[in-house]
């Protein structure tokens, strides 16, 4: 009897574990499917790029997306935010563009390379965090377009709306942190990060606010890049 009792306990535990694993798989699959559907439904479906206007870019590393903007255009000047004093090497501030992305603070600061990525970091970000950062790289204008860099043309009014959304995401006078390299830095940001409100969803929101045609919900890089 003493040997049979533990077996009777183990079987229900194994069944519960199988159900839990199945539920987790369904959750992940459902999240992926919902994200792809949300990314395929267009917001601003009537938008057309103007023949002339302000050229911006959207870029990706396959997981994360960011917007590449001219430092001075359409009455918007980013040099007050993206100061040379925030860089390890201020000479990089001579570049005429910046790449701007938003994300969870620990995810940004603890993963300078993909080798540094830890499951616990991903899980904590997916569950949710109120600590977010804006990441800014000082770069030249892209010279080649490919699957990882796409060109978008905006009217001056659209560009100002895009810029207003980005500025509203930055905490004025907030903390500033060294970047990964000599040409980038992090800035304290506003907003709650989680599996719904991802870095890519932020980029999609910025483009929607500007009036650009993009997915209704863009949690993944592909749901942003696929529109351009």
Specify the number of helices. 6
Largest sheet: 7 strands, antiparallel
Strand arrangement in the largest pleated sheet:
8-2-3-6-7-10-9
Oligomer: single chain
The whole-number mean of residue pLDDT values reads 90
| Apparent shape | globular
Describe how the helices and strands are arranged.
Elements: H1 4-40, E1 42-43, E2 54-60, E3 65-70, E4 72-73, E5 76-77, E6 97-104, H2 105-110, H3 119-127, E7 132-139, E8 149-154, H4 156-168, E9 176-178, E10 184-189, H5 199-210, E11 214-215, H6 221-225
Antiparallel strand pairs: 1-11, 2-3, 2-8, 3-6, 4-5, 6-7, 7-10, 9-10
Helix pairs in contact: 4-5
Describe, in short, the structure shown.
The chain has 228 residues and is of the alpha+beta class. The protein contains 6 helices and 11 strands. It has helices at 4-40, 105-110, 119-127, 156-168, 199-210, 221-225; strands at 42-43, 54-60, 65-70, 72-73, 76-77, 97-104, 132-139, 149-154, 176-178, 184-189, 214-215.
Provide structural commentary.
With 228 residues, the protein is an alpha+beta fold. Helix content is 36%, strand content 23%. It contains 6 helices and 11 strands. It has a 7-stranded antiparallel β-sheet with strand order 8-2-3-6-7-10-9. It has a two-stranded antiparallel ribbon with strand order 1-11. A two-stranded antiparallel ribbon has the order 4-5. Strand 9 (176-178) and strand 10 form a beta hairpin. The longest helix is centred in the N-terminal third of the chain and has 37 residues, at 4-40. The model has no long low-confidence stretch (mean pLDDT 90).
């Amino acid at each position: 009897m003493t040997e049979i009792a533990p077996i009777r306990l183990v079987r229900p535990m194994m069944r519960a574990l199988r159900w839990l694993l199945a539920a987790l798989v369904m959750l992940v699959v459902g999240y992926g499917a919902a994200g792809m559907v949300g990314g395929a439904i267009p917001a601003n479906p009537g938008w057309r790029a103007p023949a002339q206007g302000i050229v911006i870019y959207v870029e990706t590393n396959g997981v994360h997306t960011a917007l590449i903007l001219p430092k001075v255009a359409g009455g918007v000047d980013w040099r007050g935010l993206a100061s040379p004093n925030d860089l390890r090497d201020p000479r990089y501030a001579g570049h005429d563009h910046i790449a701007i992305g938003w994300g969870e603070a620990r995810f940004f600061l603890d993963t300078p390379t993909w080798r540094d990525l830890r499951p616990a970091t991903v899980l904590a970000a997916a569950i949710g965090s109120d600590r977010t950062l804006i990441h800014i790289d000082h770069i030249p204008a892209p010279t080649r377009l490919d699957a990882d860099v796409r060109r978008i043309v905006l009217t001056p009014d659209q560009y100002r709306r895009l810029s207003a959304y980005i500025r509203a995401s930055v905490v004025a006078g907030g903390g500033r942190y060294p970047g990964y390299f000599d040409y980038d830095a992090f800035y304290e940001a506003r907003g709650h990060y989680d599996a719904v409100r991802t870095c890519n969803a932020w980029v999609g929101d910025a483009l929607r606010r500007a009036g650009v045609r993009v997915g209704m919900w863009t949690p993944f890089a592909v749901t942003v890049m696929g529109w351009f």
